[in-house]
Amino acid sequence: MSEYSIEEITADHLAHITAVAQGLAGDVRALVDATVRTQVGDDDVAAAREHIAAATALLRREQLPGAFGIRFSATAGKRNWGNAMVGLRNPVAPPMHMSYDGEKITGTVDLGAAYEGPAGLVHGGILAALLDQALGSAAENAGVPGMTGTLNVRYRQATVLGPVTVSAWLDRTEGIKSFAKGTVSTADGVTVEADGVFILPRWARGQSQEDAVRTVGEG
Ligand SMILES: CCCCC/C=C\C/C=C\C/C=C\C/C=C\CCCC(=O)SCCNC(=O)CCNC(=O)[C@H](O)C(C)(C)COP(=O)(O)OP(=O)(O)OC[C@H]1O[C@@H](n2cnc3c(N)ncnc32)[C@H](O)[C@@H]1OP(=O)(O)O
């Protein structure tokens, strides 16, 4: 397991690669939305596919051997840029933008046509994933990070595609277990409620975060 790593990086370089990654991911996200909603004819689709194939070949010239992983540094903190919900360089991530106010986390996200489940409504799995991320971050933010052990999700009313707010907070901790809760809200009010248990895995117990990263980084 070597997906956690330490990578020192200067502030200038961080600013540069952040802008580049956000730009590219944003362009690809726009492409996905355009693909879902296009109504152009076959010839235009064929021409677009040629452009897409050329862009893919260009990006494939130099690739990571696997996923981005999670990288830590003194200047940049934690970079989970490949994360499927919040990853800065991942166009699959809507992305959710998270802000922290003490132990409360607020995630804002605009869910477009690419996140549809029932007609005009957000796919329930996407909502569960956003809650998983926010509740997990609430546990981590409270100092007891962990893998999701159990996540309970109650869909109270349909969530219409569009802007959505995710709230999450730590309920309590019991040793290596964190219990977090959260909601999804829209203009219609709370649409989803969740609670979850996040468990610090065995390999990380009794280690500082830095030691844990070194252990897995060498593993
Ligand atoms: C980087 C270094 C720092 C270390 C951080 C490590 C991990 C943190 C990772 C990220 C956190 C950061 C941000 C969060 C952001 C996003 C959230 C997304 C998270 C995910 O997307 S994550 C993917 C889905 N997730 C999995 O892929 C988990 C697969 N699974 C396992 O990795 C193990 O299964 C594990 C670790 C869950 C437990 O394994 P284990 O060996 O540690 O368990 P053990 O037997 O020691 O039990 C200890 C106590 O937990 C209770 N317990 C056990 N299992 C439970 C369960 N499922 N539900 C409720 N309670 C459970 C027992 O009943 C006992 O309780 P008690 O002590 O009271 O009896």
Automatic annotation (TrEMBL):
**Gene3D superfamilies attached to this UniProt entry:** Hotdog Thioesterase (3.10.129.10)
- Top-level division of the source organism's lineage: Bacteria
Kindly list the GO CC terms recorded for this protein.
cytoplasm; membrane
What is the first-listed, main subcellular location in coarse terms? membrane
Entry's localization field: Cell projection, Ruffle membrane; Cytoplasm; Membrane
Q: Thioesterase domain: which residues?
A: 120-191
Leading EC class: hydrolase
Show which residues constitute the signal peptide.
none
Q: What is this protein called?
A: Acyl-coenzyme A thioesterase THEM4
EC numbers on record: 3.1.2.2
Q: How does it sit in the membrane?
A: Peripheral membrane protein
Q: Which Pfam families match?
A: 4HBT (PF03061)
Name the reaction it catalyses. Answer: (9Z)-octadecenoyl-CoA + H2O = (9Z)-octadecenoate + CoA + H(+); (5Z,8Z,11Z,14Z)-eicosatetraenoyl-CoA + H2O = (5Z,8Z,11Z,14Z)-eicosatetraenoate + CoA + H(+); dodecanoyl-CoA + H2O = dodecanoate + CoA + H(+); decanoyl-CoA + H2O = decanoate + CoA + H(+)
- Return the InterPro entries for the record: HotDog_dom_sf, THEM4/THEM5_acyl-CoA_thioest, Thioestr_dom
Q: Write out the GO biological process terms.
A: fatty acid metabolic process
Q: Which family does it belong to?
A: Belongs to the THEM4/THEM5 thioesterase family.
Q: Name one GO molecular function term.
A: hydrolase activity
Identify the keywords attached in UniProt to this record, alphabetized: Apoptosis, Cell membrane, Cell projection, Cytoplasm, Fatty acid metabolism, Hydrolase, Lipid metabolism, Membrane, Transit peptide
